[in-house]
Specification:
Layout: H1 4-14, E1 21-23, H2 30-43, E2 45-50, H3 58-69, E3 72-77, E4 80-84
C-alpha cells in the first residue's frame, strides 16, 4: 500500500500525463487487464479514463483493474483513474 506522501508525489507526477486507456460500454475484460498490466510494466504510472457510456461505476472499474494488474489506485478524480505499479525491469519512479 502507498502512504499519503507517496500518493501526493505520484499525483504530481501523473498530472501532465494523458489517459492511455478508455473504459467504455464493455467495461473491464481480460484483454484490457492484460494490456493495462503490460503498459504499467513499461510506464509504472498511468491514467485511464472511464467513458460516459460505461455501465460500471468508476470505483468498481478502478478496483477491477487494480486487482487484475496488482497495481495501486493513486487517485480517482472525475472520470479518470490513476494507477501505479512498480516495474520489475523499467524502474523509473523513485518513491519518497
Amino acid at each position: 500500500m502507498l502512504t499519503g506522501k507517496q500518493k501526493r508525489f505520484l499525483r504530481s507526477e501523473a498530472h501532465h500525463l494523458n489517459p492511455i486507456f478508455q473504459v467504455g460500454k464493455a467495461g473491464v475484460n481480460e484483454n484490457m487487464i492484460k494490456q493495462v498490466f503490460d503498459a504499467l510494466e513499461a510506464r509504472e504510472l498511468m491514467k485511464i479514463s472511464v467513458l460516459q457510456n460505461c455501465e460500471d461505476d468508476k470505483n468498481t472499474v478502478a478496483h477491477q483493474l487494480a486487482e487484475g494488474t496488482g497495481a495501486d489506485i493513486v487517485q480517482i478524480i472525475g472520470n479518470t483513474i490513476i494507477l501505479y505499479k512498480e516495474s520489475k525491469e523499467n524502474k523509473q519512479i523513485q518513491l519518497p
